[in-house]
């Protein structure tokens, strides 16, 4: 017997769907709303070593991280909403360090937030002229908590990628 492949999708309608690949067909086996009131589910971060899933999504103008284990929001970051390009540190780093590192683009500037519990420190860290006319995408490559430095990859409108280390 073939081993079935299960997929989980998330979407702008606030629902997750469990899908099984059956030969050349996709069969939806369940549809559920992991967080009531979250308008846009971006992804669900699952850890094989922990029973907690972190739902990443948007509600109104906020990026929200929601714990399914405690059934509460662990981060609400006013960033402007779901149409933002953003990057978030990995689930392993989030659970081990208890710090969320979020970088996002708003009004053509890159913002960096490093959040421990309710301690929120958000500020613009540089303007788009660093990489070209506009910054279109970004990724947190590495964050070192003890040193307080962060390595970001920025993508511009002309497909140039710039690496930036911040202290």
Describe the secondary-structure layout.
Blueprint (H helix, E strand, L loop, with lengths): L4 E6 L5 E7 L2 E8 L7 E7 L6 E7 L2 E6 L4 E7 L7 E3 L2 H7 L2 E7 L2 E7 L6 E5 L8 E10 L4 E8 L4 E6 L1
Antiparallel strand pairs: 1-2, 2-3, 4-5, 5-6, 6-7, 8-9, 9-10, 10-11, 12-13, 13-14
Structural class: mainly beta
Unreliable stretches = 118-122
Average pLDDT taken over every residue:
80
Main beta sheet strand tally, sense and closure: 4 strands, antiparallel
What string, H for helix and E for strand, traces the elements in order? EEEEEEEEHEEEEEE
Work out the strand percent.
over 45%
Radius of gyration, taken over Cα atoms and rounded to an integer in Å:
17 Å
Helix share bin:
under 10%
Biggest sheet strand order reads 4-5-6-7
Work out the oligomeric state of the chains in this entry: single chain
| Number of helical elements | 1
Number of strands: 14
The rough form would be described as globular
Protein architecture, described:
The protein has 167 residues and is mainly β. The chain has 1 helix and 14 strands. The strands form 4 sheets. It has a 4-stranded antiparallel β-sheet, with no helix packed on it. It has a 4-stranded antiparallel β-sheet with strand order 8-9-10-11. It has a 3-stranded antiparallel β-sheet with strand order 1-2-3, with no helix packed on it. The protein is globular. The protein starts with a strand and ends with a strand. The relative contact order is 0.11.
């Amino acid at each position: 017997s073939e081993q079935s492949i299960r997929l989980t999708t998330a979407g702008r309608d606030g629902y997750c769907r469990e899908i099984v690949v059956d030969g050349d067909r996709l069969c939806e086996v369940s549809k559920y709303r992991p967080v009531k009131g979250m308008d846009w589910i971006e992804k669900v971060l699952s850890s094989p070593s922990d029973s907690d899933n972190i739902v990443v999504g948007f509600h109104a103008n906020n990026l929200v991280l929601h714990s399914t284990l405690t059934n509460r929001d662990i981060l609400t970051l006013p960033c402007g909403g779901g149409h933002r390009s953003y990057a978030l540190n990995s689930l392993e780093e989030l659970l081990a360090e208890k710090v969320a590192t979020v970088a996002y683009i708003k009004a053509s500037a890159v913002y960096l937030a490093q959040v421990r519990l309710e301690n929120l420190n958000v500020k613009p860290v540089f303007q788009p002229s660093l990489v070209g006319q506009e910054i279109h995408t970004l990724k947190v490559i590495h964050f070192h908590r003890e040193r307080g430095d962060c390595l970001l990859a920025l993508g511009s409108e002309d497909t140039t990628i710039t690496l930036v280390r911040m202290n």
